[in-house]
TrEMBL record:
Protein name: Sulfurtransferase TusD
Keywords of the record: Cytoplasm, Transferase
Family membership: Belongs to the DsrE/TusD family.
Localization per record: Cytoplasm
Length: 123
């Protein structure tokens, strides 16, 4: 039986919890656990920001999320309402301030991810 996991990230990219969420997903992949997707919610949407300046001597978690998506095709979903509230998207404009590896989604997508997974982890 294949195991599956969905992850909800509510922590900002400067938080150690965002890195913990990344490591959980990375370990799941290495353990042949299917990751149905990662849903970024609340301050977690800042993990998708193109213009967030993290000092070079700190962990570049945004780069790790992008690489995870590119190498493993793990879906990275961004709550559109939380992103709009934090100035990452504009309701009447297509100029989003998010990396293209992240897909704008609603809470309905979160429900779908959790329904497809055996386990849900929120950090």
């Amino acid at each position: 039986m294949t195991q599956s996991l969905a992850v909800v990230v509510t922590s900002a990219p400067t938080s150690n919890l965002s890195y913990t969420a990344f490591k959980i997903v990375e370990q799941a992949i290495q353990s042949n656990i299917t990751v149905t997707g990662v849903f970024f919610y609340q301050d977690g949407v800042l993990n998708a920001s193109k213009y967030l300046a993290i000092p070079s001597d700190e962990l570049q978690i945004i780069s790790l999320w992008k690489k995870l998506n590119q190498q493993n095709q793990v879906p990275l979903h961004l709550c559109s309402t939380a992103a709009e509230k934090r100035g990452l998207i504009f309701p009447d404009d297509d100029n989003f301030l998010i990396h293209p590896e992240f897909t704008l989604s609603g809470l309905g997508e979160l429900v779908m991810l959790t329904n497809q997974a055996d386990r849900l982890v929120q950090l």
